[in-house]
Amino acid sequence: MSTRKHTALPKAQTLIEALPWLTRHHGKTVVIKFGGNAMVDEELKAAFAQDVVFLRHAGLKPVVVHGGGPQISSQLEKLGLTSEFKAGLRVTTPETMDVVRMVLAGQVQRELVGLLNQHGPLAVGLTGEDAHTMSAVKRYTEIDGERVDLGRVGEVTAIDTGAIQALLDDGRIPVVSSIARGADDGQVYNINADTAAAALAAALGAETLMVLTDVEGLYADWPNSDDVISQLTASQLEKLLPELASGMVPKMEGCLYAVRNGVNTARVIDGRVQHSILLEIFTDEGIGTMVVPDGPQGGRK
After folding, report:
1. pLDDT-derived band of residue 87, with 50, 70 and 90 as boundaries?
2. What Å distances lie between residue 233 and 31, 123, 222, 292, 300, CA to CA?
């Protein structure tokens, strides 16, 4: 008798390919920064939620950190307030901060929690203000050698992981809005979500930090070539930082900070590709750019 051909066999082979990565990441914390096009496209949002829930059911402990640049700009426009950026960071007046807080905690976070909870009672939303999860000080930037005031833009000074760890221990998926309370002045600060995700990944001792963006990864020679750097070390990344486009700087600085503070890998992946998170974690090829600490390195993953 000949063996019957099973049309679903390739699916089984795909699942088996994921086995070593499932084994490696089981029980590990993964911090995912949700942003870019994945945040505004309905299909990509739904696929993102599926990926995160899949990670949770596969035995990983995902934590989602989000900003909300497009949504904030849209709401400011409706209110007749202008969006101003300096060195890639939003200038945040007290009026703007009210909108930022409302949009992040009341709109973006609620929508994301709702998408995740279509798959079960998993997601819980909180902001960096809750339980003093993130404390901050006022952040300045430098342009042409001069210090520039960005208003209510903060820099993370401390992380208290207690509330997030309690949620993870209870099998939940924390969804964190990148807002923090001033450690000294009690003001509420807008925190760059890439920076917040990196600080949180380090504080949690995460296995990996994943940053969703609107490019394929870090390009080797942009704009002359669209070849993506598959893997590089912290030192190699540090040398490249001065040459990067302003939008990529906070993302790559976040990756650098993470791997230099105990996170095993940091990855920038294309959030425009459906299920890019699963492709990166559970396939041999991966997708995007991975940053690893200096020293003896393993292969992809």
Report:
1. confident
2. 19, 33, 19, 5, 12
Tell me how far CA of residue 61 lies from CA of 57, 77, 124, in angstroms: 9, 37, 13
Out of 4-8, 20-24, 264-268, give the one with best mean pLDDT: 264-268
Q: What is the C-alpha separation between 145 and 47, in angstroms, rounded?
A: 43
Strands 61-66 and 289-292: unpaired
Q: Which residue has the tokens 């390009």?
A: 219
Has 90 been labeled as part of a binding site? yes
Which residues lie across from 213 on neighbouring strands? 270
205 is in an annotated binding site: no
Catalytic residues: 33, 36, 69, 194, 251
In which band, very low, low, confident or very high, does the pLDDT at 234 lie, cut at 50, 70 and 90? very high
The answer to whether 68 is a known ligand-binding residue is yes
The answer to the question of whether 260 is labelled as a binding residue is no
